[in-house]
Amino acid sequence: MAERTLLQRLIDDETPVAGRPFDTSVATQSIVDYLQILMNTRQGAVGTRPDFGLPDFNDMASEFPAAVPAIARAIKQQIDTFEPRLRNVVVRHVPDPDRPLNLAYRIKAELAVEDSDDPVTFETVFGSDGSVRIR
Asked: What does pTM read for this prediction?
């Protein structure tokens, strides 16, 4: 399986080199870029895959903080469905006592590329404008 998505490989003019060692940092950055797209797309926005992206969590605002585990499940389900380069995904809420209304999640997984099973961790923060940042 490739380090980068098909679209990234099509856009890049770099010629692939046979026998080049697998670069986990390239794969990890590609996954971050893709998760950024995935998490910032609202379900129903992609006509060919209406299940792609996260649901609109504004509907859950009245259920806060009970909605926190539902959001974690939604993130995990999206990664399990649309990011095959990760396996054994665990999503956990990371409370911030200084900012109790901020939503932050830690995503832990293993790379499922080449012969790697390297662990990776991503921090996911929901902005007040509804956008999601992944790092």
From this structure: 0.80
The encoded tokens of residue 69 equal 């585990």
DSSP codes of every residue in 59-106: GGGGGTTTHHHHHHHHHHHHHHHH-TTEEEEEEEE---TT-TT-EEEE
Helix axis angle for 24-39 and 67-82, nearest 10°, is 130
Per-residue pLDDT of the chain (135 residues; tens, 9 = 90+): 455 555 555 555 555 555 555 567 888 999 999 999 999 999 999 999 999 999 987 777 667 778 889 999 999 999 999 999 999 999 999 998 887 777 899 999 999 877 777 899 999 998 877 788 998
CATH class of the domain defined by 22-134:
alpha beta
